[in-house]
Design brief:
The protein is mainly alpha-helical. Among the domains are: 66 residues; 61 residues, no CATH class. It contains 4 helices and 2 strands, in the order ααββαα. It has a two-stranded antiparallel sheet. The radius of gyration is 72 Å and the shape is rod-shaped. It starts with a helix and ends with a helix.
Length: 219
Amino acid sequence: MAEGIYNNVSSVELSEADRGERVEKTVTIYMSADAVRAQETNTQRETTTQQTVVRTGIRCSRLAVVCVGLLCVLLLTTNIVLYMYYIRDQTIIANLTAGRETLLSSIRNLTEERDQLKSSYQNLTEEKEQINNTYRNLIQEYHILQTKFHHLVKLIEKSCFKELKTFGSSFYFFSTENKSWSESRQDCREGGADLVIINSKEEQMFLIDQKNERISGLV
């Protein structure tokens, strides 16, 4: 376009017009060329500006896409981390629940064992009381037997009771005096004894034999 403008200027210089007019036209043409150049410069600037704006828009779009991608990755990572924490919490809750059930079962077992021990303790206490009662009864019987033994020893030492007969662990005295039942019992109690009480068939046969012997001796 500039070469065309300069060609036009040459043709104007070879015309038949005067120089003053030629100079004025030449200046006018040159001013027009500067205007064209300025317009071209403005056009180039506008084109460059538009390209810059387009490039900036593309860069912004790319940056927005990258930011969205990063946000998606961050959101996915956050979801994965939250899911892992959720799984961990569920596992911990399950373990705690199982531990609680185990503790409750242990508590129930311990409670049952405690009740059994209480029952056993009560039974042992009752058995202890029974043993103590039996022991006291045996002590009383021992004292009674000891007292009877001392009375029997005294009876043996008396001259009137020298003829004693034994059967088992008992001593028997057969009196030859004729007395009533009350008098005979009173006499025996004064000596620390009592009238005989037959407790078995063997004891009865022993007494019958002793009676027969004494009857035979009297005859």
